[in-house]
Write a structure and sequence with these properties.
The chain is elongated and about 70 Å long. With 311 residues, it is of the alpha/beta class. The termini are far apart. 42% of the residues lie in helices and 21% in strands. Helix 3 crosses helix 9. Strands 2-1-3-12-4-13 form a six-stranded mixed sheet, sandwiched between helices.
Amino acid sequence: MKHWLQLLAALTLVLLLAACGTGEDSEEQESGDTGNNEEEAAPEEENAELVVGASNVPHAEILEFASDKLAEEGIDLEIETFNDYIVPNQALAEGELDANYFQHIPYFEGQVEENDYDFVNAGGVHIEPIGVYSQEYDSLDDLPEGAEVIMSSSVTDHGRILMMLEDEGLITLKEGAGINATIEDVEENPKDLQFRDDVEAATLPQAYQNGEGDAVLINSNYALDAGLSPREDTIAIEDEENNPYVNIIAVRSEDEDKEEIQTLLDVLHSEEVTEFIEEEYDGAVVPATGEGAEVPAEEDTSQEDEENNEE
């Protein structure tokens, strides 16, 4: 009898151990706690970060609008705002920015040459026509003899302004002066306009609002930032067609082909951003990819010539 009791006890112990083992296996299966599942539950990839320096208006506003679309493309955009034309390029050169967006092509080229920056123009985004503002006069024709004309101290804007005044019939420049024209290149000046070029671009709206000068030429970004309307408050405005002063995305040469930079340009050229610029600024800012900003295609002219020849 004792022998059978010992055998029964041993059998009971075996059954209890087997039951415990089966329960542990079941718990593991139910909890899904396996090495393979850990591999399948890998964390999601984080968005890339892109830091872009920009003027407050309209550049930072355009970037802010584009930020949601960039996030969808896997890029978290950080916008650093600046209120001058010098620091953004310095910050880009020092690696504090991945790109900047505030300057037009002639200014960019001048800064690269002057400071030996290793930058490239990654692509144009928009044009900001310069406007003429006056507290006293309703048109350029009304400007009196000897009128004081205030313009930016930035030399790269001088040719642009002088060419505009030449197109309006106020002055004549020396032949071939073009976009590099300076005040010294004014050959004919029937109204004896007095040019003042000692005011920084960012403070031009303040000069106008303080009643300085008879006419003040202001870049649209600074005008908008000061609450002025380049379409309603000007007595004349620069023609945006075939305009070389496209505002660009500037980057270090080594980053020109970075995927994030190309994505940024793609988004800024998208239909959504183009429509935002057109609707938000009502012609005071013109998309570089929009109507009125493109140089007419050569093939259009040739096609007309062929038609004329056929006739």
